[in-house]
Amino acid sequence: DAKTTQPNSMESNEEEPVHLPCNHSTISGTDYIHWYRQLPSQGPEYVIHGLTSNVNNRMASLAIAEDRKSSTLILHRATLRDAAVYYCILRDGVGTDSWGKLQFGAGTQVVVTP
Amino acid sequence: EAQVTQNPRYLITVTGKKLTVTCSQNMNHEYMSWYRQDPGLGLRQIYYSMNVEVTDKGDVPEGYKVSRKEKRNFPLILESPSPNQTSLYFCASSREGLADEQYFGPGTRLTVT
Known about the structure:
The structure holds 2 protein chains of 2 kinds. Chain A is an all-beta fold. Helices cover 0% and strands 46% of the residues of chain A. Chain A has no helices and 9 strands. Chain A has a 5-stranded mixed beta sheet, with no helix packed on it. Chain A is globular, with a radius of gyration of 14 Å. In chain B, the strands form 2 sheets. In chain B, strands 2, 4, 5, 6, 9, 10 and 11 form a 7-stranded mixed beta sheet that branches. Chain B has a 4-stranded antiparallel beta sheet with strand order 1-3-8-7, with no helix packed on it. Classes of the chains: A mainly beta, B mainly beta. At the A-B interface, strand 3, strand 4 and strand 8 of A face strand 4, strand 5 and strand 10 of B.
């Protein structure tokens, strides 16, 4: 299975943008890139996903490199509520025996300073 | 309100005493899954189900059973719990299709003594 690599932690000041990198050099052509986050004492929460093109939603933007070997989650204006562990996950988009599996890595702990 | 519910939220039990953690979703989702989360090991998938009567093993299925008799429910069964199954458990669901977001439940904290 394709794996992802993320920094252990990142710090940001409130109201400033946060760029969270994710490396996935062994990504296959059918893998979707998903991002989830987990706030303290809560279950993971979907943030955004994409395949090839950059994506935007109300929570964040996802910038995907042209070769798809890396991506960046962008939180445009960090708030204290954005302090969480952010997970970058690949999901196989082809119907194989393992397509239901979802593997979380260690994620990036985002610290937001007032 | 669209949600995934789990019961109980907290459970302390003894080794060998069978238990069931229930999971229910009200979104008519095809796909459901169970995870456990442990310090230093992150979230690991236990079992998943693509549809009613269709289940498959995740990365850490040993010591667990599941069933999917109805679309909305996906209980996790520990036939003979052991202390190494002390963990935080999450249930999740999503619509059919891998591009869909997963909705997670609030978690069940299980302690096996």
